[in-house]
């Protein structure tokens, strides 16, 4: 017997709610985008930008660019649609992470004299390709001169949508975790190593991390926190310079050196880790108790 696809119109309110909850637990962040996305136009824009850079490089080297026979391109592929041409025209060239971009990021970060200035500088910075796929910058939020600064790896879909770190369900979970040891979100500073959400929540590449390092280190330098709480595998490896997992790095005090200043740092599991493996909540709770106890004893 042939099966029939079930439409949303066939479900009642309770069934729809259950279906949405299932997708949320499975990690689906978006069902539909707010605006239609023409992926073909994006590809055409990237290819045009690549061709322009290649042409510029050939001209600078004094080499004529190879050209096809007249009309060959027209015969080999159809002309782009109007929507593709309109989308391609204003699209900026994709910024590929490289050594110059890292140097530019370091210079931009060093010129900021406050967190507000740093935010403005990062919003204008165009040297990281992640900026072009994210909705916007997700900057540090909270107490600008905290005793505790909490740092995660990168924004998720909720953060990207709200423009704030640790938004949505993970933010609520983090607030409960911190509240359990007497810390309030308004008293601390929250931030991420990567300020722009990577496409599909993928892990940042090495060059992307190198570009973003001056920005997070400058945030720490300007905020002058007394202690750092590092969340998750990526963030722990980033700050501790280790290839070990968060389960090996968690629960211990270490020093992180930023601008010549040693800051006591403590790593534990990220709220996303706890959502994926609720059994790990007991480990996180042990870590938080140890972190709370160490706040008074660390120099």
Automatic annotation (TrEMBL):
UniProt lists the family membership as follows:
Belongs to the uracil-DNA glycosylase (UDG) superfamily. Type 4 (UDGa) family.
Which keywords fit this entry according to its UniProt record? Answer: 4Fe-4S, DNA damage, DNA repair, Hydrolase, Iron, Iron-sulfur, Metal-binding
Q: Where is the stretch described as Disordered?
A: 54-92
Asked if the Swiss-Prot or TrEMBL record annotates the protein with the keyword Membrane, the reply is: no
Q: Name one GO biological process term.
A: DNA repair
- Transmembrane intervals: none
Q: Which PANTHER family match?
A: TYPE-4 URACIL-DNA GLYCOSYLASE, TYPE-5 URACIL-DNA GLYCOSYLASE
Lineage of origin: Bacteria, Pseudomonadati, Pseudomonadota, Alphaproteobacteria, Hyphomicrobiales
In Swiss-Prot or TrEMBL terms, this protein is called Type-4 uracil-DNA glycosylase
Q: What's the EC number here?
A: 3.2.2.27
User: Which species is this UniProt entry from?
Assistant: Mycoplana dimorpha
In terms of Pfam families, this protein maps to: UDG
A GO MF annotation of the entry reads: 4 iron, 4 sulfur cluster binding
Q: Which InterPro entries match?
A: UDG_Type-4/5 (IPR051536), Ura-DNA_glyco_family4 (IPR005273), Uracil-DNA_glycosylase-like (IPR005122), Uracil-DNA_glycosylase-like_sf (IPR036895)
Which reaction is the catalytic activity of this chain?
A: Hydrolyzes single-stranded DNA or mismatched double-stranded DNA and polynucleotides, releasing free uracil
Q: Where is the Uracil-DNA glycosylase-like domain?
A: 139-289
Keyword Chloroplast listed? no
């Amino acid at each position: 017997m042939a099966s029939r696809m079930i439409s949303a119109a066939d479900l009642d309110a309770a069934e729809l709610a259950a279906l949405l909850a299932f997708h949320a637990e499975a990690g689906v962040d978006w069902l539909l985008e707010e605006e239609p996305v023409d992926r073909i136009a994006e590809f055409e824009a990237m290819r045009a930008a690549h061709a322009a850079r290649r042409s510029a490089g050939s001209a600078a080297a004094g080499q004529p660019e190879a050209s096809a026979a007249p009309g060959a391109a027209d015969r080999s592929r159809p002309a782009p649609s109007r929507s593709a041409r309109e989308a391609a025209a204003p699209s900026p060239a994709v910024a590929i992470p490289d050594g110059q971009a890292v140097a530019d990021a370091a210079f931009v970060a060093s010129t900021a004299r406050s967190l507000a200035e740093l935010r403005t500088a990062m919003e204008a910075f165009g040297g990281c390709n992640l900026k072009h796929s994210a909705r916007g910058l997700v900057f540090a939020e909270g107490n600008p001169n905290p005793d505790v600064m909490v740092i995660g790896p990168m924004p998720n879909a909720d953060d990207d949508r709200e423009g704030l770190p640790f938004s949505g369900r993970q933010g609520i979970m983090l607030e409960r975790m911190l509240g359990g040891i007497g810390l309030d979100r308004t008293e601390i500073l929250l931030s991420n190593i990567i300020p722009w959400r990577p496409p599909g929540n993928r892990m940042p590449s090495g060059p992307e991390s190198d570009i973003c390092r001056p920005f997070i280190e400058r945030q720490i330098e300007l905020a002058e926190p007394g202690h750092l709480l590092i969340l998750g595998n990526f963030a722990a490896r980033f700050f501790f310079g280790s290839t070990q997992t968060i389960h090996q790095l968690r629960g211990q005090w270490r020093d992180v050196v930023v601008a010549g200043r040693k800051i006591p740092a403590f790593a534990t599991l990220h709220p996303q880790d706890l959502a994926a493996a609720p059994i790990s909540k007991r480990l996180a709770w042990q870590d938080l108790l140890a972190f709370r106890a160490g706040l008074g004893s660390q120099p």
